[in-house]
Structures are given as structure tokens and as C-alpha cells.
Amino acid sequence: MGIMQVLTDARSSVPQCLQALLTAELTDNAGWELLIEMASTIGYDDMRERFETALAHEEEHLQNVRDWLSDSILDKVQGDES
Where are the domains of the chain? Predict the structure, then answer.
């Protein structure tokens, strides 16, 4: 609920929203990694492969959010120096 509160609160800044999204993406990635480990452990190779594909997509999302957050914070810092 906390992530949604940050995202829907008009007082939240862009960096705060991106930090909330980063939290969600990190959680997603950890979940896929656990599913991959579980599928490997019980020998569900087809399922593991599908989970690995999903994780690859999630890793792209994670990198996008990291880049956006970094850019947002650096823009703010550079703007404060002016």
C-alpha cells in the first residue's frame, strides 16, 4: 500500500515516485529469482526457462527505473548548483 500512496500523493516529487518504483522493481526481480530457484530445485526446467525470460524483462525495467531516478536526482543537483 505504501508504494501506491507515494505514487498517488500529489505532494510526492518525481524522485520520490521513482524511488517507490525502484522498490517495486527490486521486489519483482527478487520474486522471479526465487521462482527460478524453486523451479530448478524441483526439476521444472520448462517453467524455469519461462521464469528466466520474465526475469530478463524485469531486469530491463529495473535498469530503466534506476536510470530515470539517477537522471532525476542529477538534474536536481545540477539545478541547485546554478
Answer: 25-76
